[in-house]
Amino acid sequence: MGPSLFLVVASKSTTVPTSRTINDFEDINILFSGFKNDYNFSNSQVLNQVSSLTIYERKYAGATIDLGEFDADLELSLWYTQMPYGSLKPVLAEISFKYSDPNANFTRKVVELAASSFGALKGLT
After folding, report:
1. Torsion angle defined by CA atoms of residues 30, 32, 36 and 39, in that order, rounded to the nearest 10 degrees
2. Labelling 117: which of 81, 94, 95, 106 has CA 20 to 30 A away?
3. What is the sign, positive or negative, of the torsion defined by CA atoms of 22, 18, 107, 60?
């Protein structure tokens, strides 16, 4: 079997409800209290578009995955560097699943099932 065509990376993210428009690092520092301490960007630092790059995202949701203690919502995001059309292939595909644990007590079993799920994705062709 040859090298995998996929790079599988696991991460953890969170959602912060806000109506704030993100214009500068002050907006980020207010929403994410530890960000300023970790990265020390000035509040007045303006955010700029990277290399005039525009990314188009298409999301597909509705499936669930069993993680033992949780049923997680599965979401597929396809990322394009131009407006998507029929045969255009995405530059990136992101699969994520979302679940909440009000106590933030993610058991080893849940973490292992999540890692196993991503491992199974790596074997797809």
Report:
1. -150
2. 81
3. negative
The CA distance from 82 to 7, in Å, is 22
Which pLDDT does position 59 carry in this prediction? Answer: 93
Length of the chain, in residues = 125
| pLDDT surpassing 50 at residue 4 | yes
The residue type found at 109 is K
Give the C-alpha separation, 118 to 10, whole Å: 8
